[in-house]
Amino acid sequence: MKKIKILAIVGSLRKESYNRQLALAAKEILGEQVEFTVLDYQDVPLMNEDIEFPAPDAVKRVREEVKSADGIWFFTPEYNHFFSGVLKNLIDWLSRPVSDEEPQVLAGKPAAISGISLGISGTSIAQDHLVTLISFLDMKVMNVPRVTIPSAWQYVDEQGKLTLNEIYPHLEKQAEAFVNFIEGK
Ligand code: FNR
Predict the structure, then answer these.
(1) Separation of CA 123 and ligand 1 centre (Å)
(2) Rounded Cα distance, 93 and 78, in Å
(3) In the chain, fewer beta carbons within 10 Å around the N or the C end?
(4) Domains in the chain: how many in total?
(5) What is the 23 CA–ligand 1 centroid distance (Å)?
(6) CA-CA distance, 78 to 115, in Å (whole number)?
(7) What CATH number is associated with residue 55?
(8) What CA dihedral angle connects 92, 97, 99 and 105, to 10 degrees?
(9) Does the Cβ of 77 fall within 6 Å of ligand 1?
(10) What percent of the chain stands above pLDDT 90?
């Protein structure tokens, strides 16, 4: 049977990003049962309609990656009670039709959301904003369960490495639920 493909989109470009580490923990949980890739989109330019057609190569590449995925799992930081500008920029590019014949690539795609932040909201406010945006773009959002991790410092050692401790079962549950959600179970 064909393996499910999950594309993780991390809303932080920081090398040691906790959200990136969370995505990698989810990848480890899912192991061999799915193909799990973290999207690299550092080279996507700022949205500017002057350069929209023909699409820049980086935009073509991320669109292809989204198109070939069975589900998109967002790992979002919280910047000032919102998701990050880099994530909004990426989604703005993805929200545009590819051509007259080809619609935007996010519509109908199953989506899951998780996030970790230093503050007490645990990204829940940013996640709510993200739900509004991706629902507008007609993604199929799995609203339950969502993982929100506050006070990230509790889970990070002196080298900045994330250890999930009691959070781990919640991420496991979400991973399992997302696979079932994608499979329509
Ligand atoms: C933050 N941070 C933050 N944290 C939070 O819980 N609520 C917030 O509103 C904000 N606002 C905010 C704004 C900006 C501009 C930055 C750079 C940071 C702190 C944030 O949670 C922390 O830097 C995380 O480590 C960011 O996620 P990554 O990069 O580790 O994935």
Answers:
(1) 9
(2) 21
(3) N
(4) 1
(5) 16
(6) 8
(7) 3.40.50.360
(8) 100
(9) yes
(10) 95
